[in-house]
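Batch job 17 of 40 flagged for manual review because the log was empty.
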Amino acid sequence: MPRDPKSDRLRLDDAARAGWLYYVAQNTQDEIAAKMNISRQSAQRLVALAMRERLVKFRLDHPIARCMELAQAIRDRHGLSFCEVTLVDPTSDNPALGIAEVAAAEMEKYLKSEPPIVMALGTGREIRGAVDQVSRMTCPQHKIVSLVGSLAPDGSANVNDPITVIGDATGAPRHPLAVPVVATSKEERDIICAQIPIRRNIALAQSADVAFVGIGELNDAPPLLTDGFITRRELQELQAAGAAGEILGWVFDDRGRLLHGLTNDRVASVPLSPTPARPFIGVARGPNKLRAIRAALAGRWVSGLITDETTAAALTA
């Protein structure tokens, strides 16, 4: 059977990561195994592979080394428990390029768990790109729950809701949040979210073992506007109030503070929690999202980040 070039590349990436952790960051093989969620024997083999393929000399001879250094700098600066930085193609305008594969691999690590877990997902192009990359597997013991409303303003399904895709790939039960992203009034939001099935799914999402979310920008054409969740006038009001970014529809300023009133009074998504106790991983890249990512990190709304090399370099400048 011919070898899979993609599989070989990913194994070399893992070997480079293990080599960097061992020779540069001075981790033991037990520590490498824990950080990469692999066995000690696998960690030992990857370190040996890094040497055999001459990825390690006096320094790590692999482009991912720069990404690892940036990831460590972001973790240290923002107190994150997890950060992955990917290589970048400067000619591409695909918002999910590179980070989708990394996010998918991270999702798969959790989904391969034999004990049952709950995985919560936000929406957005990057998250949708990631779930499209998740390998098919059978894990009906897990639950997939949505963190954000699955209904567009016209009552149709949100095209970027990822739980259907990942549910089909894994066989895991799906728990959608059948509410609008932004209700028409605070009273409507309160009535909708008081329904027992909605309350149960919100509670399930808040107890999730891991969550993956997009980080949205609030420029002149953000997804909240182009997908029809807010109006142009509402966007202008948010911008005038200092809106810098949003997660799950919750809008915050440059210091990461949630804006009072405005659309935040009507958001029906699962509430954000600062400094999340469980892995709450943001997936975002690109110059248009740089301000939003900085604000999300300032507010400590995420405990982990998956981004690309260019964005990471700007975040650490």
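Reviewer: the log was empty due to a logging misconfiguration, but the result itself is present. The longest strand covers residues 82-86. Unflagging and moving on to job 18.
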